[in-house]
Amino acid sequence: MQTQTQSLGFSMGDSRRSMQGMSYSDAVERVETLAAENAVVVFSLSSCCMCHVVKRLFCSLGVGPTVYELDDMTGGAELERALRNLVGDSQAVPAVFVGGKLLGGLDRVMAAHISGALIPQLKEAGALWL
What we know:
This protein is an alpha/beta fold. The chain is 42% helix and 15% strand.
């Protein structure tokens, strides 16, 4: 299954406006808005191996996450800082949201997968039907 990659300056309708220099609260609000728009959202950096792993995991489960590559987005650095605080770790990405709720980074996604909790969360969010 393909992932859906979004770039704020390219395929999002109202998001062409510049986000550079946005306040922290604006960045958090933008992250929350983007996270709520799809069942599974991954904030990523295109060169991050941990991001690649989490995207491949979802694809292997039959889930096509919406992926926001922060290094390709206008204002991506501000969003990355907001995510670092939301995730509560020095590593801001990958930041995974399921059903609009923060699941966490790779460690929490893998822990949920190994424990068997990930599939029910994906089903509840409408990302999986079987």
